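I hope you will forgive my troubling you with a question about protein structure. I set the record out below, with my sincere thanks for your time.
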Amino acid sequence: MTGTVGKRRWRRVLRGACWAAAFVLGLGLLAPVAAWAWWQPEPKARGTGTNALWARHQWVGEPHTDAEYRAFADLLKANRITDVYFHAGPFEADGTVPPGKYRHAGALTAAMERYAPDVRTQAYLGQIRVVEGEGVIEIDDPDVRAEILRTDEIFLDLGFDGIHYDLEPIYPDDRAFLDLLDATRALTRERNALLSVALEQPTLADAAQPVYDALLPRQGAFRHPARPTEDFLRAVSAKADQVAIMTYDVALPTESLAGWHFARHTRAVLELIGDRTTVFIGVPTYRPPMMPWAEDLEVALRGVRRGIDLLDRPPKRPYGVGIYAAWTTSADEWELYRANWLPPETGKASG
């Protein structure tokens, strides 16, 4: 009798486990189906004439001919790129950049002034931030931050229109990073220049940060994905003229899910800080290492446009996409970008 009761109990447990597994599997299948259905309508929104581009280090580190400068300027104007982040670093651990790494920066800025005077050239400076003893540059050190500012001054003296920081990882408890932004903003305002920053895509839910800490293993200085919270994004947007969100490297298995990712972050970021600062949503022109079949420029632009469609109203400040990167963008991708993103007419953009 006891054995029969035990067998019945185990059958009930097994049956319940099977139903639970079926429920979870059903949810897993439902999400892609729902995303696919949501993805089908053509977006109504068009892009803007305010857009950014990350450009490779060779522009400041190697010589170029006048024809090469002119051709690059023509490409920027044809694609309504208003801001170019020319890689000029990386920082050394003490906050300097060796002069040999940017010996041709002055020639670049002079050529840009000749051939694309309306395009803002920014010195793109970054490094791996020290976190819990791991990393390269320790911005908690006031002396290092002071040296970073002296380096910024050098690039502004060379004719750059702004400073673009890409320090990683930056976690939402990073007071030193906010202090660096305050000091840099004082410098750039004094020099009538721009301050822009690149940040990772925001959290899906701010409350998930402690879960990341507990569950995900550390990888060097990266203790978990460095996702800015809403409060941190607001704090950064109050200090920077531009915020570029590195929305790429989605790692989702279908185009519709990847597109939903771009749409979700476009809407959330523009609603949160689009009235405070110029926002660029990063889009890729390369195949990511994970699930490359699902993420490309066409998917990203369509997702960004869907996100704009979801807004109740346009942001008060200029906004657009940031293309990563100039050295991976083919002629076909530039054509696709113009066809799928740029508006029919353009006015003079500011930001």
